[in-house]
Amino acid sequence: MSQTSVRPRARRVSGLAALLAATALVLTGCGASGLDAESAAAADGVVIEHGHGSTTITEKPKRIVALGWMTPDIVAALGENPVGIEEVWGAGESGYQPWFEEFVTAEYGETPEIIPYAEEGPNYEAIKELEPDLILGLYTGISDIEYERLSEIAPTVPYIEAPWDPSTWEDMTRTVGAAMWENEKAEELVSETEELVTSLADAHPEFDGKSFVWGLTLNEGGTDLGVYLEYDPRVRITESLGFESTSAMDSFLATAEGDNWYTGVSLENLYDVDAELFAAWGASVAEGEYTVQNKVVSRWQPIEAGSYVIYANDAEASAISAPTVLSLQYILPTYVEDLAAALAGEPTIAG
To answer: Signal sequence span per UniProt (predicted)?
Structure first.
């Protein structure tokens, strides 16, 4: 097996602040603050249908509380620094995910208030003190009762279809754009990001048609390898770069329980899973090394060929697990570089 590259990650400058500043200049003067004609004409404001009913936003919001994953990125990219956010997985010592902190510092000169953790549900008092005119929490599990209490503070948009289901990053960008009366700018951001993905795929024709599995590292003594399903963001992003999901995906789907976006493959059946590449995330570099050194896993096609990428860095794993127009700018160049190296037999375990 090829020697694995194990290395810490340095922060990378995304350059998205300059890109979005240019986009904002182009959009200035487009009318209705970026609102499309249909929404601008709606006498009662913008109406967002969601998992708890519908929310009407009667004027363009300026003080937005962004709860959970992904939403803060989109709000900032669309032209408003959130007045408050929650600390989420992948945040550094500062409490902010690195790409978000970098962007809002460059674009707005300051970071939002971090809403203190509450034992049960949202911190209503802290949110109320921020005097929001809109609360967004599309990637959350906000319950009926929590939605009602938040709506007493400000118009609230929770998850759209189901708890902890963000849909695609494109749809989420468009939904937040509609709520912020910034439909046109949202479309611009989606297009710019899709162009980035396309350009990276075009630069790596060797990705085209290569089969892959996205999964998790093994816990010590584990007998199942966790794998993600076709609708998981990690899988979708990798497919958009030219790869093809393993032919075993149908069997993955058949064994998944409920609405889970992942399942497990027994190690005794691992050799039946065809894949030329394995990408995964784990709790630590040591866990990644334990996985690839396992006597069964080590003989599985992509591991034996050295064609694997394992992220044990929370920020990198978070950036691709919950992709946004900001996090994709941050992670994709690195991810593509690591994928190309893996296909050349140069694996990576990054912590």
So the answer is: 1-32
**Domain range annotation of the chain:** 36-181, 204-350
List of the chain residues with pLDDT < 70: 1-43
**Alpha carbon 152 to chain centroid distance?**
29
List Cα–Cα distances, 93 to 69, 121, 187, 317, 321, in angstroms. 17, 23, 33, 16, 20
Backbone angles phi, psi at 47, to 5 degrees: -115, 125
CATH of 204-350, one of 3.40.640.10, 3.20.20.140, 3.40.50.1980, 3.30.1330.130: 3.40.50.1980
Tokens of 277: 């590449």
CA–CA separation, 67 and 318 (whole Å): 16
Letter string b/e over residues 73-93, b meaning 16 or more CB atoms within 10 A of that residue's CB = bbbbbbbbbbbbbbebebbee
**Per-residue tokens: 253:** 């789907």
Architecture of domain 36-181: 3-Layer(aba) Sandwich (3.40)
36-181 shares its CATH topology with 204-350: yes
Here the tokens at position 318 are 């978070």
Rounded distance between C-alpha atoms, residue 209 and residue 21, angstroms: 36
Distance CA 251, CA 254 (A): 5
Compute the distance between CA of residue 19 and CA of residue 23 in angstroms, rounded to an integer. Answer: 6
Q: Where are the alpha helices (DSSP H) in the chain?
A: 16-27, 37-40, 71-77, 98-108, 124-129, 144-153, 169-179, 183-202, 233-240, 249-255, 285-293, 301-304, 314-321, 327-343
**Pairing mode, if any, of strands 308-311 and 277-281?**
parallel
